[in-house]
Amino acid sequence: MHEEIIKKIEPELEKAVDFIQKKLASVRTGRASPTLVEDIKADCFGEMLPIKQLGAISVPSPRQIMIQPWDRSYIESIEKALAREASGLSPVVEGPNIIINLPSMSEELRKEMIKAISQAEDSAKKTIRKFRDEAWSEIQEKTREGLIREDDKFRAKDKLQEVVDKYNKKIDELVERKTKELEG
């Protein structure tokens, strides 16, 4: 029974890891990456669509992102979306393309990005703690009801902690990699 309780929270723990992966992908380091802009939504014909569905995104140089819209009519709405959502990035229309030149990262901006990473990490770990606590409460409840034996309860607690540690380690590795990119 305790296995099912633990298995039930694993998809939620996976979502916490996915959340931080997406959050970290959007954190700008000194290098250009399509992930900085691909999920920004632009208004095309009354529908909000991510830029990655509106054109090809490439990185011609380490400090430049180029967007080649599938249709020229998308240029204005993509440019507006970038100006609105991608703070600190200045899109420039050059013919059929939109070019974003990334400024070099100041120490102040680097500190701001590290702070954003730390907040995302706290949020993801808080979510994991919440689901661990819910699972543990359910295990204790089932023990009181006689559905889980007392010695199985402690095995379940160890197994639960093992699962939580595995997901926290994934988060730590993602955060460490992104922090190194920022400092690198």
Cα distance, first to last residue?
A: 47 Å
The global form is elongated
Q: Tell me the count of domains.
A: 2
Spell out the helices and strands N to C.
Answer: HEEEEHEEHH
Q: Low-confidence spans: pLDDT under 50, at least 5 residues?
A: none
Determine the number of helices (DSSP H or I, runs of at least 4 residues). Answer: 4
User: Helix coverage percent of residues?
Assistant: 55-70%
Instruction: Kindly state the number of beta strands.
Output: 6
Radius of gyration: 22 Å
What CATH calls the topology of the largest domain is Topoisomerase I, Chain A, domain 4
What's the architecture of the largest domain, going by CATH?
Orthogonal Bundle
Description of the structure:
This protein has 184 residues and is α+β, with helices and mostly antiparallel strands. The chain folds into 2 domains: 2-25 and 106-183, Topoisomerase I, Chain A, domain 4 (Orthogonal Bundle); 34-101, Gyrase A, domain 2. Helix content is 58%, strand content 16%. The protein contains 4 helices and 6 strands. The protein has helices at residues 2-25, 75-85, 107-144, 150-183; strands at 41-44, 47-50, 55-61, 64-69, 91-94, 97-101. It has a 4-stranded antiparallel β-sheet, with helices on one face. Strand 5 and strand 6 (97-101) form a beta hairpin. Helix 1 packs antiparallel against helix 3 (107-144) and helix 1 (2-25) packs parallel to helix 4. The longest helix is centred in the C-terminal third of the chain and has 38 residues, at 107-144. The protein is elongated and about 70 Å long. It starts with a helix and ends with a helix.
